[in-house]
Amino acid sequence: MKCKYYKKCSGCQLQNLDYPEQLKYKQKQLNTLLSKYGRVERIIPMEHPFNYRNKMQCAFYYDTRQKRLASGVYQSTRGSVVSVDYCMIEDEECQEIARTVTKLCTSFKLKAFDERKGSGFVRHLLIRKGFKTGEVMLVIVTAGVNLPKKTSFVNAVIKAHPSVKTIVQNVSPDGINLTLGERSFVLYGSGYIEDELCGCRFRISPESFYQVNPTQCEILYNTALKLAEIKDTDRVFDAYCGTGTIGIIASKNAGEVLGVELNAAAVYDAVKNAKNNGANNIYFECADAGDYITELTKAGEKFDVVILDPPRAGATVRFLKALCKMKSDRIVYISCNPQTLARDLNFITTHGYRAKKIQPVDMFPHTKHMECVVLLSKN
Ligand code: SAH
């Protein structure tokens, strides 16, 4: 066991195993769940499986022993905060910034919000970093609006950490645990940062989805796009497209790409991202993926390739029905949950497709989470 917080924090469920053992454990689980649909390739490991997370969150609390404000990892099952000095999967610079901001809160006399008493001010921090660009975003989540000595506070942060390119205050009066509230104020910079993936540049806003392990994410996207074998005459449908990352990278080799995403902020970023990357053959729609693909199928729209990257719950039956009806040549399913992937593969492979390649990628070393890419083609 490498981390002394292993039991208390419970974020890294496989810490008790050495990395090669973790990979074996994951492989075995994936084989059990997925080998019914085809051979499961060897999971692609991460070369340096430490400090890979580009996103960290920590919650503030009042440390009664030390009699001062402190920050730590929010433990959702217990609903309490665990004091953690060092995390081996989070980026080191992000952790340093969190420590600085925690100290600054004390020197600026900001009080940690106390859920039970309903008193205090600072709730938690969200820090995101572009690994290629080095840009850092700091989101400070508060219970109220008025941040005292705002300008001095901001100046102190950027003086200590010049890589912080933007600071956002998010107001979450009754938000539970680590969620963001509806109101945000940009205190410094543009309100977003940028990063690069597979040669394209992407903006990251406080709330839009961005893969947390960019190193392995490039391997994941490259694997998916290699399997998709996109030609310059192909029409590609990118479902659950987030900020448009996969679709924009794919658009370089495609005839046309259409992306669909439910989160309006992500679609806004996707449109900007397409423009910034000079991709003029990609379009986005803000809608439920299931509703939208059903409409497309009804209208007789045809796509050569469908890429889908749904959240942990997997795709809905409504989505899968329309997907199989569309009769695209190739389907590339990217999944972060092998349980729902197995369930969805069961549907797709009984409705005209077979799995041609199942490639797992280790995106979340030391945790139980598993990512997979599956290529399906028409029977
Ligand atoms: N492909 C993107 C995002 C994958 S995460 C990437 O690699 O970055 C899954 C995305 O699905 C999230 O952006 C989420 O907002 C979106 N989503 C969740 N439910 C959805 C639905 N019903 N319809 C469309 N998109 C949905």
Comma- or semicolon-separated keywords:
single chain, 379 residues, alpha/beta, 7-stranded mixed beta sheet, 10 helices, 16 strands, 27% strand, globular, binds S-adenosyl-L-homocysteine
Can you offer a commentary on this structure?
30% of the residues lie in helices and 27% in strands. It has ten helices and 16 strands. The strands form three sheets. The chain has a seven-stranded mixed β-sheet with strand order 3-2-1-4-5-6-7. It has a seven-stranded mixed β-sheet with strand order 12-11-10-13-14-16-15, sandwiched between helices. It has a two-stranded antiparallel sheet with strand order 8-9. A hairpin with a 4-residue loop joins strand 2 and strand 3 (80-82). The protein binds S-adenosyl-L-homocysteine. S-adenosyl-L-homocysteine (SAH) binds at residues 209, 211, 240-242, 245-246, 260-263, 266, 288-289, 309-311.
Shape: globular
Sequence of strands across the biggest β-sheet? 3-2-1-4-5-6-7
Low-pLDDT runs: none
Rounded to the nearest angstrom, the radius of gyration is 22 Å
How many separate helices? 10
Total E-strand runs: 16
Helix amount: 25-40%
SSE ordering: HHEEEHEEHEEEEHEHEHEHEHEHEE
Indicate the mean pLDDT: 95
Beta-strand residue percentage? 25-35%
- Structural class call reads alpha/beta
Largest sheet, described in full? Answer: 7 strands, mixed
Terminal residue distance: 47 Å
User: What are the distinct ligands in this entry?
Assistant: S-adenosyl-L-homocysteine
